[in-house]
Amino acid sequence: MTRRLWLALVPSLLVFVVAGCVSLTPAQKDTVTEVQRFADATAAAYGLMRIPVTVQAGTNLGIGGVYRQGNFYLNANMLDSGHLTAVVAHELGHYVLGHEPISGVSMAEVLRAQEPKELDANAKAVEILVRVKGMSQPQAVRTMVVFLRTAQNAQNRGQPNAPGHRPPSEEIADLLARYPAAAAAALAPGVGAASALAPILVPTWMPGDQWTFWWDNPRGSGTFMWSVDREQEVDGLQYYVVVSRPTGSNPARELFYQKTDLAWRMEMVSGAVESKSEPAQQRYLWPLAVGGNWEQTVAVTTGRDGKSSTETRVRSCQVAGEETVTVAGGVYRTIKTTCRDKSNQVVFEVWYAPEVKHWVKEWTRFSWGVQERELMAVKLK
Fold first, then answer.
1. Cβ proximity of 41 and 132 under 8 Å
2. What is the CATH number of the domain that holds 220?
């Protein structure tokens, strides 16, 4: 006798039950409100009934969100993630496409039948981001690819593939094949700007300015937020103190940048200096204009668990050119700076966008591999 299996399979596949209420910070409550507005706008755009958003207690099961039978269940951990927009768009894609529980004679059959639905939800998410969020198609594609790349990185470190999904690399390939023109623009290294930007002056940051970034390297992948907390004087110089809040359980960090030129001075964790540059490490040459160049030698001291080490960094940098780049946070006209070490190897590239008063893309070579970071969202006072 064959027992038929009924399973509500959606992107993360599992719905979890929570006892009691979920405690949220005021900022998280505001985020939930934004998610509900996104869901309401999507339902209106497609002529569907309103879909309620319910926040479930956070788990470490890799479950970002679940759509099932007209309801959207969101993992509380996603509220502080830069991938929130991608996850919500994917779940709303299931809703718009009418994906409901699948039946099958075996679990393997059910899982296989779910795979094309996940691919379709990825593609529909791009459409929703364009139609409802007002993103360009390249930006929407980039938003989804960045999310899937993070999932791929987690699998590279041993996390199992989500049941009902193909490997993230295959999902990325499918998405890019569906949007080839947008994919080319979204993944291009940069396109020269049509007209020259005027020399850019050092920006003024304000307490409350926020930038959310995605990072990816051989050791991991994730998102974090930088928020300007205050101005502070150290050794007679004025600094912006930027609080870095990563997702997960890692502690917040305080980064000190000189007001005069945004050079990085030091980083503190729980009130103790963890790393410091002598002199402050320069990243830009102001006013920022193509052709500018400089050389700098700094000593960076890092201390952990009562031990410290010092690394001497020799950099030769040039403001290389203007480029229009597409990142998850948008499409921006930027000034690109390239830095080389004493062996003439490129070790650092940064794309600064005056529109957001910050870099929107960064590439760094370390001894253990290459790290990429890019802007996902910005809020300026």
1. yes
2. 2.40.360
